[in-house]
Amino acid sequence: MKPLAGVRIADFTLHAAGPFCTHMLSQLGAECIKIESAARPDIFRKPHPVYGRMGPASFDQVASNKLSVRINLKDARGVALAKKLVGVSDLVCESFRPGVMERLGLDYAALAALKPSVVMVSVSSSGQRGPDSHFAGYAPLFGAWGALGYLTGYEDGPPVEMRHVMDHSIGMNAAMAAVAAVYRLRRTGRGGHVDVSAREVACSLVGEALLFAASGGEPARIGNDHLRMAPHGVFRTRDEDRWLTIAVRSDDEWRILVRLIDAPYLLADPRFQSAAGRHEHRRTLHGEIEHWTMTCEAGEAERMLQAAGIAAHISCNMEDIAHDRHLRDRGTVVDVEDTTGHQRAALKVPIRFSKSDAGMARGTPRLGEDEDYVFGELLGLSCEERQSLIDQQVIY
Amino acid sequence: MTDRAVAPLLAGVTIVEISRGVAAGYAGRLLSTLGAETILVEPRDGNPLRHEPPMLPPTNEASALFAYLAAGKKSVACDFETPAGRAELSTLLAAAEIVIHDLRPEERIRLELDEEGLRARYPKLVDVSVLPFGAFGPKAGWQAEEINLIHASGEGFLLPNGLAAERFPDRPPLKVYGHFAEYQGGVVAALGALSALIGREHGGAESVDVSVQDAALAVGAFALQRLGDGSLEHRRTRSFKYGGVLECADGYVELLTLEERQWRGLVELMGRPDWMQDPALADSLERSRRGAEINRAIRAWALEQRTADVVAQAQTLGVPMAKYASPAEVLSGAHERARHLFQPVEIPGADRLPMLSAPFHVDGAAPTLKAGPPRLGEHQHLLTSRRRRDQPAVTAEVS
Question: Residue A246: its pLDDT value, please?
């Protein structure tokens, strides 16, 4: 059994961040009913020239395991049908621009009037309230607004764009807050509205730097440096574009490293005697470390350093990850079959329970695939009623 | 609408946190901000993050990182190596719903906090392990810091992109600032803890295992999907064809136009220059093909712009654009102020400072930060006074 078994979601989310939230919840056991229409399918269902993809790959990534129904929300009868669905759901998730759900008559106040115990999770660029709440945005803009983009980059270079990890971080935060709200619902019967702001998620990922700035400090881009540790960085190895990350945390680890790379002269060097000295002279020091890493095969060096208790890992590309023994053994990377019957590596919800199950039980639904169950069984619509709504393009 | 009378989401939940690292600490922090009582159990000489930079000026006595992670928590100091210390911990665990920790598997066994031991002694306690590579698997015992984990999860290899990758094509790949992967581990651990708490009602208490690598990889899932499409993502080839990071006269902005109307808005924003009137550019695929040429023109134009003005105009025209805001700009932002994102808290060893609450509102308001970080052992009395609370008291607390 999955931990969230018995929780039902009416899922109005689109694109990446919102659907990733419900993708997590559905793998944790919630029954997630995705609402789209033929007139307005999730844009991620379609090929996308910006990414040059011809199949709905990123859709598979966030839509598998969900149930699909068609509801035309431009029609008042469609809105009424959506409200019926909310009536049998515990949780409503949406990621429209603030104001859209209200125009549809599906905002929190309207739904709570209908069903006081409803829990609603809204995911938007800047939150439901505040002077910028109407702003349009995508992942790189969230990172820019939230200082995460400003702080990421080489010391002497420009800020860096946050990409899909930004969207999915937002979805993960939304999933966490949603489950907290479901907990209260189960315990007290009380619903509530969770309003997730994408740019605030970016801020939350640099919360300590924002606090430092509030006290008069000036956090800045520092590349791969650490504020205390050295050696600390990403080092070249023998092979083209194969990189090794190393972080040395203590004097003991420093001495072990020096022995390991057979460079006793570094121990004797007065600049590198203390942690503060190593940090001050880190550029020179990193050059010395790279002399050694340049002679190594990345994976061998990684295993050798780990065997000595030093934090090291290769910089993985997705081929490495798809075949990684550790990730496979943990069930993190699994093989799934996509809509064309092609096998591909996919990721399971990143939580392992000792007793409960979690993960994907089925693939991406076709648009409207689950209407017999949802409209027929859950909402009790007769075949005639459904056919009539189809004919009137309400179920469309 | 703000309804202050409503109990926080996690009112009445008690969490014991035994942590050294950022991920477990952030999980406890999130849950505390949502209303749980999080009791941080520290060694006698304090949680190591109390000394982790950045330290708060001017006295440099308090760590900004620890302050951010420990805000609102209670602190007890406890030496597990002594029978008395283990008895004290036992008192706390007996009254808790959740224990979050980053103990290594061998430490858990030694402290009798392994799954079997916990289940036998505290049958209703949910336990959550948060380790760099998780508690099982070939790398379970491996050492890692943030820089190792952001690269073990694939995102490190893919950064930087855009302008930084163009300017420095030969430099090593780049980590995200700070503790990005570890924070992901914290969010996932909080999600796992709460899911297990809900699942406890039908399946009983259980153990939850979270790996920071898994968590950071989960949010990077798109790149693995691209591999399934036959495309191995690389930092040098995943930049947007045009737009992205733009240097202006007084800082940087981000520009991203994915939809036709946004491109048309950009044409307006740039004052309809002749080159943009080329009918061929009405086609998005043609624009994509001529991205480099378009970008040269956009970049030359951007250099003449002031960030505040151009962003305001862009948003009016429906062009997605944002300033790369510095931390100081975020702190003083009108939007952030209106949403009470930052709330003043007392920080021992520093001043009263505005600190980020949480990246969401609940019941119409930002969750209230209960307090700043605790002094070491500030709530030591909990070790002796804490008893399993009776149900009426819990019910009263949440209603």
Answer: 98
Token pair recorded at residue A270:
């007065």
Residues lower than pLDDT 50 in chain A: 52
Phi-psi region of A241 (alpha: psi -120 to 50; beta: other; left: phi over 0): left
**What mean pLDDT comes out for the span B30-57?**
98
Residue B33 at interface with chain A, using a CB cutoff of 8 Å: no
Q: Which residue of B has its CA nearest to A352?
A: B209
What's the CATH code, domain B14-222+333-398?
3.40.50.10540
> Which residues, numbered 345 to 384 in chain A, qualify as contacts with chain B under a Cβ-Cβ cut-off of 8 Å?
345-347, 349-356
At residue B351, φ and ψ (nearest 5 deg) are -95, -175
- Token pair recorded at residue A291: 């002399």
Q: What is the pLDDT of residue B397?
A: 46
Q: Given a cut of 50, is residue B364 above it in pLDDT?
A: yes
Q: Please confirm, yes or no, whether A226 is among the known catalytic residues.
A: yes
Instruction: Report the residue from A164, A312, A326 with minimal CB separation from B137.
Output: A326
**pLDDT recorded at residue A48:** 57
Given CB atoms, is B284 within the 8 Å cutoff of chain A? yes
pLDDT at B392: 46
Question: Measured between CA atoms, how close is A270 to chain B, in angstroms?
Answer: 24
- Superfamily for domain range B244-326: formyl-coa transferase, domain 3 (3.30.1540.10)
Q: Take residue A225 and report the two structure tokens written for it.
A: 């440096």
Q: Residue B238: which pLDDT band, with cuts at 50, 70 and 90?
A: confident
User: In chain A, what are the domains?
Assistant: 8-206+366-391 (3.40.50.10540), 232-320 (3.30.1540.10)
* Predicted pLDDT at B388: 47
Q: Which of A48, A164, A193, A226 is catalytic?
A: A226
DSSP secondary structure of A206-262: THHHHHHHHTT------TT--SS-SSEEEEE-SSTT-EEEEE--SHHHHHHHHHHTT
Predicted confidence at residue B230, as pLDDT, reads 85
pLDDT at B337: 98
